[in-house]
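Let us work through a complete example step by step.
Step 1: write down the sequence.
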Amino acid sequence: GNPVTFTAQSATHLTITTASTGPIPPAGTFSVTVQLRNSAGAAVSLAGKSLSIAKASGPGTLNGTLTQPTLANGAATFSGLSVSGGTGAHTFTISGTGLTSVTTASITFN
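Step 2: predict the structure and record it as tokens.
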């Protein structure tokens, strides 16, 4: 028969695997973990892909380490993040070059 060739699909988008839900207390921190995915939705293992997090909605300023590389399993965790000067509902977008970004569900800050 003919040999079968498998090729790894490259990462096309991000999904959120875990995220804090809130409410986050004053001076409290939160975290978000994302996973690289291919067009079929399967996890992509790729180390060193630079990802960034930014505030998509809500008042105040996002603080912390806002850029993280993916680990060998294709996941990246943004931890120890905080928002100063803004209470209420916020959303955050994680993005990387060549990837479709992903936005968190609303996280409430007290």
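Step 3: interpret the result. Strands lie at 13-19, 30-37, 50-57, 61-63, 67-69, 75-84, 88-95, 102-103, 107-109.
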